[in-house]
Specification:
Layout: H1 3-14, E1 21-26, E2 30-35, H2 43-48, E3 54-58, E4 60-64, H3 69-89, H4 94-110, H5 115-127, H6 131-149, H7 157-169, H8 171-182, H9 187-198, E5 206-207, E6 210-211, H10 218-237, H11 242-286, H12 289-305, H13 312-322, H14 327-331, H15 333-348, H16 353-367, H17 372-382, H18 384-405, E7 410-412, E8 426-428, H19 432-457, H20 461-467, H21 473-483
Antiparallel strand pairs: 1-2, 2-4, 3-4, 5-6, 7-8
Length: 501
């Protein structure tokens, strides 16, 4: 049997079966499930599966499978649901389905439905599907730059440049498509309006005595254009007669939103995008160490409340403008602090075999930037190690920020990976060698500081004694009571978002 299908088949009954699953999605590392009844989930058995790295609840039920794996398991899981739904359809009654649908809608209305979080999730839904292409093109761009610097295969480098730059030259169109889809419009109309932003012919458009530059406004202009297109389309759908809808609605949508984009949105979005680039440069050029300390130290808490999703369009704008985002390497230091903290927990708890086993299995993934198993299986349940992990992240961020202040900028050509997995995507104004050295130094600083802070300040004497007690059920219960972690060794649930930057 195919390995990915086997994983899907193992997960499905443990989440209550196909009848308990309302929707399926995935991000870089997690299988995200909408569930009718959370009480049907056999979580202990689910966590025990070798392929499952952790479980998180944040609106949806999120099963951490890791990058690559989740993208292969999700289609198999959806196929299982389709087969189960087809089998059950003959016995389902209309009244029963209607009742279930109303229950789902009611649950969704009352669960984590704050306007800010809903907006940030929608923004993430627009940009997260673009991350695989950004990563692929970023790696190809790095390979092309390496060949150029080494003066190797000069006939191949133009082809690599075309491959890496092609997507970025049209990223506005993809943003437009996804924006319309997420906000309830027709995707192709959103893409058509956003295409105006990158169309070379805009250079000949006279806008109040000025000419536009192709790409002016970038992804922010495309986002605004597609949002306006959705509003225009919905307005037309409610007023245009059905007989004329197929002709009038698309025409008015593209015409009104397109003209507004040309005569206003591109200019405004261009100014905003320029301001974002200038602010990011000044933040690290003049703020340096201080800015790095704050960004690296606060990123994990931002992830916990889901506010990190607001950074996705900022990263994308910087990549589009400058070729890389200088913020991501700084934020990635949070993962280094987490790894150092976990290593200190391992050393300080020599008799806690269960927790040490968790750390051994999760540490390789943490080194590659997948931090969920360490966060939810180690530091967050223990409390203090999560804080000391943030201290390690701050130190690593300060290291990278310091070198930026001294004139060595380090950036990433794509978003998504972190840890050592970010190495192939690094770029900078002093060349690849300098970027690798600064980023590697930041990671080592984060590891060492996170380890030292956790080793010396990560435990009270009482908790340290309890966690080093022999692993009996009584001791586990006592530890859970004293620490408030729910389990001395198991992950605690926390309402957090995906910690991918």
């Amino acid at each position: 049997m195919d390995k990915n299908r086997a994983i899907a088949e193992a997960i499905l009954p443990l989440v209550g079966g196909a009848a308990n699953v309302t929707d399926v999605a995935h991000c870089m590392t997690r299988l995200r499930l909408g569930l009718r009844d959370r009480s049907l989930v056999r979580e202990a058995e689910l966590r025990a599966l070798p392929a499952v790295l952790g479980v998180v609840e944040d609106g949806t039920y999120q099963i951490v499978l890791g990058p690559g794996t989740v993208a292969r398991v999700t289609p198999e899981f959806e196929a299982l649901l389709t087969r189960s739904t087809t089998t059950a359809a003959a016995t389902a009654t209309a009244d029963g389905l209607a009742a279930k649908g109303e229950a789902i809608r009611s649950a969704r209305r009352t669960r984590n439905a704050t306007p800010v979080r809903l907006l940030l999730r929608r923004i993430a839904d627009i940009f997260v599907p673009l991350i695989p292409a950004l990563i692929g093109c970023g790696v190809i761009a790095g390979l092309g730059g390496l060949l150029t610097n080494l003066h190797l295969l000069p006939s191949l480098t133009p082809a690599l440049t075309a491959l890496s730059a092609g997507f970025m030259s049209l990223i506005a169109v993809f943003v437009g498509l996804n924006t319309a889809k997420v906000f309830g419009g027709t995707p192709v109309l959103g893409g058509a309006v956003a295409a105006v932003v990158v169309f070379p012919g805009v250079a000949h458009v006279d806008v109040f005595g000025r000419t536009l530059a192709p790409g002016q406004g970038g992804v922010l202009g495309a986002l605004a254009a597609a949002l306006l297109a959705v509003r225009v389309e919905k307005w037309c759908r409610g007023r245009v007669p059905e007989a004329l809808d197929v002709l009038v609605t698309p025409t008015l949508t593209v015409l009104v939103a397109g003209l507004a984009t040309l005569y206003g949105l591109m200019y405004v979005a261009g100014r905003v995008a320029t301001a974002i680039g200038d602010l990011a440069d000044r933040l690290l050029t003049y703020g340096g160490t201080g800015a790095g300390l704050v960004l690296g130290g606060l990123f994990l808490p931002l992830v916990m409340v889901g506010l990190h999703q607001a950074l996705i369009p900022i990263h994308t704008t910087l990549i589009e403008q400058q070729g890389y985002t200088v913020l991501l390497p700084v934020l990635a230091m949070a993962g280094a602090g987490q790894v150092g903290a976990a290593a200190a927990v391992y050393v300080r708890l020599p008799r806690n075999t269960s927790l040490r086993r968790t750390i051994r299995s999760a540490l390789p993934a943490g080194l590659l930037g997948v931090g969920e198993p360490l966060i939810y299986g180690v530091s967050l349940p223990l409390g203090r190690p999560f804080v000391t992990a943030c201290v390690g992240g701050a130190a690593g961020g300060g290291f990278v920020g310091l070198f930026h202040q001294f004139g060595t900028a380090v950036g990433s050509t794509a978003i998504g990976p972190s840890g050592w997995a970010l190495l192939p995507l690094l770029a900078g104004d002093r060349g690849m060698g300098a970027a690798l050295a600064v980023y590697g130094g930041g990671l080592l600083t984060g590891y060492v500081t996170g380890f030292a802070a956790t080793y010396w300040f990560g435990f009270t004497r009482t908790i340290l004694t309890d966690l080093n007690a022999p692993p009996t059920n009584a001791n586990a219960t006592a530890t859970a009571t004293r620490t408030g972690a729910g389990s001395a060794t198991g992950p605690a649930r926390a309402p957090v978002g995906d910690p991918t930057p």
